[in-house]
């Protein structure tokens, strides 16, 4: 087992195709097939289920991919740390869906224009999953929102730089009466991302008054703000989202909107992890920040 074999395995796993993986890797398909067979022989278990349409991972393959990802990421991280030059290689950025939609397009464009040798690998997830990915070296940095006192998010294990101040608003169906209290909300289901999402956590806290009030709150889990807004428009659900995302919706004025609170979006990093790409990415984001830089901010 070597890094080249792991890289080939990871590419085949992602593409689910020997042919597509070979094209991406600049190898002939027979070479990729041989390397996968050698790796499976060395490990002693099949990593793929093979059929005419796709190469899908076995249960053992799924587990092995997790370790292969971490090994390859650590190898690249080590190379960048011990031999720092200008930003290059792959920068693995994790982010909340809302930040990708409303905050990242311009900073990413500027970063790419200045550092074209860096490949941005962008993934989205709720905050808690992003912190987990950061601490296990699956990503290099993450844009997250940390609710006050939520130790289960792992905030004490990462360094954070506040960047954007987000106004969170309660979105109610068009024609819904204005409200002051949670019990006045007519839909009983909250459209939200999976558990681990800060905004879902805050919505639940507000509806239940921090758990002190009994509330029959149901959840409709979604994977995008488009679905969240559509379910709210249909009258099926209500939702909580940043106003910066709602501003991107053409018919936003038709909804009933209640401002609730303000929360900061932060760049989270592993303490001591200072590759040139991460340092320049943080610098680029700060140029677009609407929060004054703290004297204690990471340098």
UniProtKB/TrEMBL annotation:
GO molecular function, one term: transcription cis-regulatory region binding
One Pfam family named in its UniProt record: HTH_1
Keywords: DNA-binding, Transcription, Transcription regulation
PANTHER family xref list: HTH-TYPE TRANSCRIPTIONAL REGULATOR (PTHR30126), HTH-TYPE TRANSCRIPTIONAL REGULATOR GLTR (PTHR30126:SF40)
Protein's recorded name: Transcriptional regulator, LysR family
Superkingdom of this protein's organism: Bacteria
Family of the protein in this entry: Belongs to the LysR transcriptional regulatory family.
HTH lysR-type domain sequence ranges: 1-58
């Amino acid at each position: 087992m070597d890094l080249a074999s792991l890289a080939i395995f990871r590419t085949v796993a992602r593409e689910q195709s020997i042919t597509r993986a070979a094209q991406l890797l600049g190898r002939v398909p027979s070479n990729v097939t041989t390397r996968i067979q050698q790796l499976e022989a060395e490990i002693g278990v099949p990593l793929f289920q093979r059929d005419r349409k796709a190469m899908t991972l076995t249960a053992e393959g799924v587990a092995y991919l997790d370790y292969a990802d971490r090994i390859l990421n650590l190898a690249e991280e080590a190379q960048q740390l011990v031999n720092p030059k200008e930003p290059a290689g792959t920068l693995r950025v994790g982010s909340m869906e809302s930040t990708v939609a409303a905050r990242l397009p311009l900073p990413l464009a500027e970063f790419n224009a200045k550092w074209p040798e860096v490949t941005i690998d962008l993934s989205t997830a709720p905050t808690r999953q992003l912190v987990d990915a950061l601490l296990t070296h699956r990503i290099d940095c993450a844009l997250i929102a940390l609710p006050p006192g939520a130790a289960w998010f792992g905030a004490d294990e990462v360094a954070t730089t506040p960047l954007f101040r987000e106004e969170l608003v309660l979105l109610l169906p068009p024609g819904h009466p204005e409200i002051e209290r949670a019990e006045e909300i007519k839909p009983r289901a909250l459209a939200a991302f999976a558990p681990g999402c800060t905004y879902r956590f805050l919505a639940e806290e507000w509806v239940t008054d921090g758990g002190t009030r009994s509330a029959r709150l149901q959840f409709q889990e979604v994977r995008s703000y488009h679905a969240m807004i559509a379910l709210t428009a249909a009258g099926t659900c209500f939702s909580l989202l940043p106003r910066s995302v709602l501003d991107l919706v053409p018919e936003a004025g038709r909804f009933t909107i209640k401002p609730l609170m303000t929360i900061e979006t932060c760049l989270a990093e592993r303490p001591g992890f200072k590759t040139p790409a991460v340092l320049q990415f943080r610098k680029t984001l700060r140029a677009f920040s609407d929060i004054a830089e703290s004297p204690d901010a990471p340098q």
